[in-house]
Amino acid sequence: MCVLDFISTPAACQLARDVEALGFGSIFLPEGAGKESFSQAAAMLSATDRIVVGTAIANIHIRDAVAAEAAARALHAMYPDRFVLGLGVSHPQQVEGRLSLNYGKPLSAMRSYLERMDAVPSFIDEEAGRPPRLLAALGPKMIELSGRVADGAIPYLVLPEQTAHTREIVGPDALVVSEVGVTLGDDAATNLRRSHAHLSVYDGLENYRASWRRQGFDDTDFVPGGSDRLAEALVGLGPDGAKAALDAHLDAGADHVIAQVLGDELASDPRPGLERLAAVLGLSAR
């Protein structure tokens, strides 16, 4: 997963080429501070040859469902089997605070959005069909929805046990694409600091706190940046810890794992860490 808000679109295309050259199979784009994920995905697909580009996640509150479906089908038609549409409800703080939109009930909002997407006429890019559609899903009801009316789920900031629970709910045929934060620093203190900085973006959001409570954590873990227990459990620390974390989610039933390399800042260039991770995973440069 790569945050693109802090670099230009041409620079993002070069980043995609570099990630592809390292041997990684996918690159997933969040949609947070400003960059629009469909246009970014189109640019990166056009700049690369084989890598899969996905949205993780595209915010359903900032674009009409019909426009989202039509755009997804267009990308799938232009780049067959290389685009994955990840959708999510985001957070009240962003939707109502930054965007001044109505957040509503997450499950109802997602169900309605998917129904409107499905109502787009089949003749729109009929030959290509539509790409895989995944939902950012933490709670059991959203996970169930992702397996029943979408193609699977994207668990985020979860333990391997939650990936296994997600697999159990969605069944054997749905996709489970888990995100795992990893740090590739040179010492334990640097890796733990980066993990805490990563969690500081999320520790005040109630949907993540509720998810972590279901996974066995409690309010003592929700200090700014998260407790050491939380930071060490959710993030793969150091080269060996990174590989172990990624393997654990695959062993738990994930079809694919998104590695989010954490630097000292959100704007940090992920390539040095990705180069180290590629070596640890034994990927072949292309």
Which SSEs are present, and which pair or pack?
Layout lengths: L8 H13 L4 E4 L7 H11 L4 E4 L2 E2 L5 H14 L4 E6 L3 H7 L7 H13 L14 E4 L3 H9 L3 E3 L5 H11 L4 E9 L4 H12 L6 H9 L13 H7 E3 H14 L4 E6 L9 H11 L5
Parallel strand pairs: 1-2, 2-4, 3-4, 4-5, 5-6, 6-7, 7-8, 7-9
List keywords for this structure.
286 residues; alpha/beta; TIM Barrel; globular; TIGR03620 family F420-dependent LLM class oxidoreductase; oxidoreductase activity, acting on paired donors, with incorporation or reduction of molecular oxygen
What does this structure look like?
The structure is a single chain. The chain has 286 residues and is α/β, with parallel strands linked by helices. It has a domain at 1-136: Luciferase-like domain (TIM Barrel, Alpha-Beta Barrel). It contains twelve helices and nine strands. Strands 1, 2, 3, 4, 5, 6, 7, 8 and 9 form a nine-stranded parallel beta sheet that branches. Helix 7 (160-170) links the parallel strand 6 and strand 7 (175-183). Helix 7 runs parallel beside helix 11, helix 8 (188-199) crosses helix 10 and helix 11 (238-251) packs across helix 12 (271-281). The radius of gyration is 18 Å and the shape is globular. The protein starts with 8 loop residues before the first helix and ends in a 5-residue tail after the last helix. The model has no long low-confidence stretch (mean pLDDT 93).
